[in-house]
Amino acid sequence: MKILVVEDDKTVGEYVRRGLDEAGYHAELVGDGDQGLRLATGGHFDLLVLDLRLPKLSGIDVLRTLRDRGNGLPVLVLTAQDAVDFKVQALRMGADDYVTKPFAFEELLARVEALGRRPKAITPPVLNVSDLALDTGSRAVTRGGRAIELTPKEYAVLEYLMRHQGRVMSRTLITEYAWDYHFDPGTNIVDVVITRLRKKIDHGREPKLIHTVRGVGYVVRA
Amino acid sequence: METIRGRLTAWYSIALVGTLAAFAVVLYVTRRSASFEDLDRRIQSEAVLSAGILAESFGSRGVLLVRDTLIPEVAAVLEAIPDFLIITHADGRVLFASSDARATFGAYEQLTSLAKSAAGVGGRGATRITPNGPAVRYVIRPLSGAGPQFGAVLAGASTQGAELGLQQLLSTLVVMIVIGVFPAVAIGRWIAKRALQPVDQIITEVREITDGRTLHRRLAVPMVRDEMGRLAETLNQMMTRLERSFAALRRFTADASHELKTPLTVVRAGVERAITRPDVPQETLAALEETLQEVNRMTELLDSLLTLARADEGRAELHREPIDLRAIVSEAGETGDLLADHAGVAIEVRTPPAPLVLAVDRSRVRQLLLNLIENAVKYTPRGGNVSVQLAASDGEVRLTVADSGIGIAPGDLPHVFDRFWRADSARTRTGARPGAGLGLAISKWIVEAHGGAIEVQSRPGRGTTFTVTFPRGDA
Q: Which of B269, B303, B363 sits opposite A12 (nearest CB)?
């Protein structure tokens, strides 16, 4: 899938482009609205990631022109505006979804995947670590064939860790993924979830799969 | 008398009634002295008349007294004179007294003694027969042309008749003033209303300008350059300045969100890339995690500030859609359970059995609820409990978050929803970094933007209860 990224800030744009490349997409970056509109109407792209504040032609204008010409290219808007009315305006203009800056890349990726309307090639529907299995479709979790009941938040945290198995995930990243809410610093809600997950998954079983990385977060590995 | 209109009416009425009263007093006093002067003139002429009759009778007959009594012919003539008439002998004895003077109890003795004492010199005055009775005015005149036996003549009249007339006048005046008050008040009100109508209109128009979206409106300036016209013009100029500064604020918030968030995005992107890379040393990871936390803190603070800035302007809008509130409460309840577990606090979440669908902004209501729950858990010591309850009644949905925590001092209660407000150290748990103090301000905005209300009740040491009510509407 080819993705066009229109973003005037080079660092952010590069980051998005490289991240999407690493996730298995083909992403191209342009820095202004004129160029973005020209490329978007060319028909070579399957998705447009569009910043709203652009030099020359603003993101809203690009979007409006695109839709006025009857172009139905899926558009994911990047916006610094947190106010709902701005997002609503973008959605009314025909944007398909939006991500508010500063965003977690995971969130951007999830939305790109949803808009791409294709099976998640990067992540198989069933995640496995040792004898622990998590079905992202049915949300069923088993260890050694035995079903494990998880609450929604426990599931979300486990899924996130299993998606990135072998990599240390920080508490902040986990919180963001599972809650999308900024808790007070020092509220280590993730620790509580991990304690509960350990009871359900690792208690009385070997090998232990959930590991603590002091001062950072957690990692799931066999 | 809370309004200028009321005060104007009052002043107008007081002025009118005061004028009427002054007029009445002057009228009364003038009438009174005039009627007494009339009376005095009358008795004076009566005294002169009697002296004349006596002198003439003396001249024609030569004898007026038979055994110290006035001869009947002369007495009959004198009797024809009204009012009191007393004629004394030179040695003080009474020679004649009109029947009126004899008939009026008490007057006779008093008047005769007056006549005796002033026989030689004459005089005039007033006296009261009984302490509270009518006054009698009198004139005493020495008699010279009627022979040596005659001493003096006293003519007197009761003021009763004059007083009665004055009393009638007085009561007429009082009635007139009392009746006059009503039209005075009515006219006063009408005049005040007419004069102040433009003010009322200005108030109505200004009231309709509630926020940033209506600030472009201007007041209708009357053609007449009177006080009201100048007031409307001044207000319009003020609103123009306000609108300009609002526009500047709007530009600033938009710029600030872009200018501040772009670097934050860059920082975040870098940290995120580094932190998710395999084989990063643990110390670096810890530093990156801390950076990420701070970036999030800044992002949240920035979001809150911008939201409140837009809310002030009336531009922060909600993305409302019908949602079963129980789902949001249950989800927040699970998070509350995790927070409570960590803090050693018991939490209870109660939702009604039937769906409770309301058109709300899902993420905002979720933020509100998490905010209240997080606060409740934070300020409840280990072993305490927190209860979250969702309930529906006829016209409203009630959401309660109650804790058995440390409570809020009564003096602090009115300020908990203020921006950047933080209670003193008692409410700040040791070791934890306090938040920016915007959480409850944002919560209040969220509730009010949904047309609801938020209330707080608290007793230090007993706990705090936040009650949110949303109107049910048609959803």
A: B269
